[in-house]
Amino acid sequence: MSAAAIETRGLGKTFGSVLALQDLSLRVEEGEVFGFLGPNGAGKTTTIRLLLGLLRPSAGVATVLGRAVAEGDARWRGDVGYLPGDARFWPRFSGERTLDFLASLQRRPPLLRRTLLERLDLDRHVLARPVRTYSDGMRRKLAIVQALQCEPKLALLDEPTKGLDPLVQQAFYGIVGETRRRGATIFFSSHVLFEVQRVCDRVAMLRGGRLISVGDVETLRRIERRRVVAEFAEDVDPAGLAHFGEVGPATPRHVELLVSQEALPALVARLGMLPLLDLVVERPSLEEAFLERYR
Description:
Layout: E1 4-15, E2 18-29, E3 33-37, H1 44-51, E4 59-64, E5 67-68, E6 80-83, H2 95-106, H3 113-119, H4 124-127, H5 136-148, E7 154-158, H6 166-181, E8 185-190, H7 193-199, E9 202-207, E10 210-216, H8 217-223, E11 225-232, E12 246-251, E13 254-260, H9 264-271, E14 276-282, H10 286-294
Parallel strand pairs: 3-8, 3-9, 6-7, 7-8
Antiparallel strand pairs: 1-2, 1-4, 4-5, 9-10, 11-13, 11-14, 12-13
């Protein structure tokens, strides 16, 4: 077994009477892309701040890159890239000055800066402008660059695609793949199920501050069901579709079902034999997926 990039044992955090994280025991191997999945408020950001030593744990211990995390101990942080979920910059700094300053704190050369800027379409004219003139999407791009520009051994990315348009999201997924191929470990926090499935090797599910599942991405794909909404031009019998999945709200001309991915092709073929007027297939929300499995 390779060395652990991240290891926690019984990690917990309370804020007064509020339990933010409880008994988190987790191991992230070196070189993997690890998804940390949960709805907003699940405890993902609290976990990342504990791993960085920005918060003091109420219980348990954490080890990052072989060193025990201690609040205020910054000796190991030069090997860690951090993308906050709510990244804020100095409004009067230019983009270039921002990147230079943050690279100086890591005490490592920003060897990947130019490549990242090109991939995210941030040119020198944009970098010369004050950050206060940036759109939310441009600030997010800048945040990604600062997190990865110094070729960190470990990247802690909190909701990295928040505010990015679809084309930039595609570029970011490519960057994640390249970062992994260089041997870095990526800890990828998100509440978006499909993007975690797309880029991660393993996924941990967190809800209400508790770890409820850890597994590979293929396992996650198998448990996810689809919501199918069918509208018909003539009356049909909804009960005739029950063997494909779980029938929800239904009338003779409107049927909603929850079906597994395996059953979806057969269901679509059956619906094609009926007087189908419209068909919608949706991914359930993450919260619905959690409630379905863990209610």
